[in-house]
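Researcher: Let's run the pair from yesterday's discussion. Sequence first, then C-alpha cells, for each.
Model: Starting with the first of the pair.
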Amino acid sequence: MSRSYSEPSDSAAAPFKEHWLGRCAYAPTMARQQSFTAARTPATRDELWWLEHDPVFTLGQAGRAEHILAPGDIPVLQSDRGGQVTYHGPGQLVGYLLLDVRRLGIGVRALVSAIENAVIHVLGDWGLEASARTDAPGVYVDGAKIAALGLRVRRGCSYHGLALNVNMDLEPFARINPCGMAGLAVTQLADLGAPTDMALIRPALTAALARELGYPT
C-alpha cells in the first residue's frame, strides 16, 4: 500500500527538496511524478524522492515482452521511463530525480553519467570498486549490476531515476532478462559487505548526487 508523503528535508542550504516516501506502489508514484512535472514552473524547486516499491516488473519505453520470462504472481507494468525491463521490490532503494535539467544546463547523457558517478563514488567510499558501462546504463561491481537507471525528460525536466539493490530478494531478477540482457548477473550491497541501513545510504547518495549535478553545497 502506498504511504503519504513524509515531511520534506528542506532548508535554504539544501540543493533540492528531499522526501522519504516509504514503501509505495509503482503506478500511483509514477502518476505523482508526471503530475509534479506537468505543474512545474521555471521557479519550481527540484526534488529528490526516496522510496521502496512493492514487488513489480516494469517495462520501459524500449521494453520488449520477450525479456519477461516467467513473472509469476508479480505484476508487470508499462512505464514511461527509458530502457528495458527491470524489477523493483522491498529492500531496493529507489531515487526519483525531479530536476529542471535545462536550468542545470546539462543534457540527458550528462545526467545519466552524473547519477552513475554518484553511485560509484558512494560505493567506493565503502570499499567497493564499481563502474559504469557505455553499452548498458547502470552501475556494476565485478560485472554484476547493482544499480539500474531509467529516466524520462519532458519539457526540459526529468523524472524517474535510479534503483540501488541494498538488501532484497534477488530471485525475481531470474524471471527476466534484466535491462534486456540475457544472463546478466545482479548483486546487492548486503552480499558485498557494504552498509544496508537506508537511513545511512540516502544522505550519502544525496550528497554525491548534489556534487555530481553541480548544485552549490
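Model: Moving on to the second of the pair.
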Amino acid sequence: MKKVIIVGATSGIGREVAKMLLEDGWQLGVAGRREEELNVLKTLAPERISTEVLDVTAADAPQSLLRLIRQTGGMDLFLLTSGIGFHNVELQPDIEIKTVGTNVEGFVRMVTTAFHFFSEQNSGHIAVVSSVAGTKGMGGAPSYSASKRFQNTYIEALSQLSRMRKLPIRFTDIRPGFVATSLLDKNRRYPMLMDVEYVARRIVRALKKRKRIAIIDWRYALTVFFWRLLPGWVWERIKM
C-alpha cells in the first residue's frame, strides 16, 4: 500500500486531496495545526490514517514530520499544502513577515526534511502547492507572490540537485489560481474562482502522472502564458 504524508490537511485543498487519496487506497499521514480537524479526518478510516499536530513555523516542525512518517510506516509521496496569503496594498510589515514565515521558512523546513528522508530511502515524490501568483510580482500581495516565486525556484533547484546526486526523487510544483477556501478574503470578488473539490481532483490527477509543473486549470495556464509575454513596463501599470 502506497503511503502519503500531507502537511496542511486540516482544511481546504489539503483536506480534499487527503479524502481522494484515501478513496484510492493510500495509507495516509496527515498533519496540521488543528487537532480537532485531524481527529475528524481520522474517523474516516482509523486503520489507514495517522495524525500529527504540526505548525510549519515552529522550530520543531521537522521532528514532528519525521514522527508522523514513522507512525505511517514510511512515505512514498510528500505533499505540502500549508500556506497563507494576504491582500496587503497598505504594505503592513507584520503581514509581509508573517507570510514569509509560513511560505518561505516553513516551506524550507518541510521540503528539506522530506528531501533528506527520500535521499536516504533512495526514492520518493515531493509535491508542493504553490500558486500562479509566483509568475509575476503582484502589487496587491507583494510577500505572497514573492514567496510563491521562491517556492517555484526552490523546487526547481531541488530537482536539479537530485539529478546532480543521482537520486530518483520526483518533484511536482502545483500552481492553482484562486480557490474557494478560507484563505481568501470573503469581502473581495475573485475572477475565475475554482471549487476546492474541482482543484483537488486535478491535483490528484497531476500527482498520479507525476507532472513536474501542474497549473490548475486551463484558464490559468492560458493566463500565465500571456502574463509571461508582457514587458515589465506594461505589467507595472496593471492593478492586481
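Researcher: Give me one sentence on the second I can quote.
Model: The longest strand covers residues 169-176.
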